[in-house]
Amino acid sequence: MSKKIRHTFSRAISCSSSRRAKKVKESYIYLEGSEVLYGYFPVLLALQSQLRQVFKLFITKHKLSLRQKRIVELATRNNIDIDAVDSHVLDMLARREDKERGVHQGICVDVSSIPIQYINEYPINASRRTDILLSGIKDPFNMGSIIRSSYFLGVNDVFISEDYKTSSISPIVSKASSGTLEIHPPKKILNIDSFLKSNNKMLIMGSEDKGIDSNLTKYCTNFVTIPPGRDLHPDVDSLNVSTASAVLISELMRTNKGE
Question: Domain RNA 2-O ribose methyltransferase substrate binding, which positions (predicted)?
Fold first, then answer.
């Protein structure tokens, strides 16, 4: 069943006097999907990967940039409906979960949720794998950044568990990952205990405020820290979890390659 979003637009009309008045008219946008992606790379990679069902592309009605033209050409080849709209409509479509306006770059797309694979056991013959488990990473911007770094640096899979509260896989995550979510979505673990008992090597990253849950630390054989490169100010004592993840992943990849 489609859902509709009401929006308003103003149109200047002539009056009998020399003044001009504005008449506000209501109209509706009907959305078939469950999410709206916004921004060039999330939309581009969603169209390319075809992991989601794409219902309609919304594009600025103003002169198109080369990037926007590329999106329109790709949507046309895939027989996707295209609707040219005013900027305020795109602003409304790109409104984030936190009610702030997302940076849409003149492009939004109505899509289904990205399919997530659920697994019970760690892959067999995984001695050369490098994977990461995210536990309690609630900030969608951190989640997106970690997914992007993981893909770039060569991580096989990003895992999340429903047993430990983690950010939902939302359009904000796709935007924060610069669209990497659309080609490298995380996998969800059904039974965290059996999963961790069967794996060989796993980087586990916990929340910035509480760290790794004690139920997970019992499976850890090594605990690592990233030493600072200078004497730190007392109120600047750590790295953001997404930055720390990138540093540790890079080190793990070098270890796996025998460097």
Answer: 36-117
Strands 131-134 and 118-119: unpaired
Domain stops at, among 79, 111, 143: 111
DSSP 8-state assignment for residue 34: S
pTM more than 0.90: no
Range of the domain at 97: 28-111
Return the amino acid letter for 241: V
Helices (H), the chain: 40-49, 66-77, 87-93, 140-153, 171-176, 192-197, 214-217, 241-256
């540093």: which residue's tokens?
247
Q: What is the CATH number of the domain that holds 127?
A: 3.40.1280.10
Is 123 part of any domain? Answer: yes
Residues 62 and 122 reside in one and the same domain: no
Cβ–Cβ under 8 Å, residues 42 and 184: no
Residue found under tokens 């720390």? 244
pLDDT tens digit at each of 259 positions of the chain: 555 554 443 333 233 334 333 444 456 677 888 899 999 999 999 999 999 999 999 999 999 999 999 999 999 999 999 999 998 889 988 886 666 778 999 999 999 999 999 987 776 666 678 899 998 899 999 999 999 999 999 999 999 987 777 888 999 999 999 999 999 999 998 888 888 877 667 899 988 888 888 888 888 888 888 999 999 998 988 899 999 999 999 998 887 776 5
| 210 within domain boundaries | yes
User: Domains in the chain: how many in total?
Assistant: 2
Token couple for 217: 């630390």
Q: Is residue 23 in some structural domain?
A: no
87 and 122 together in one domain: no
Q: What angle do CA 163, 129, 199 make, to 5 degrees?
A: 45
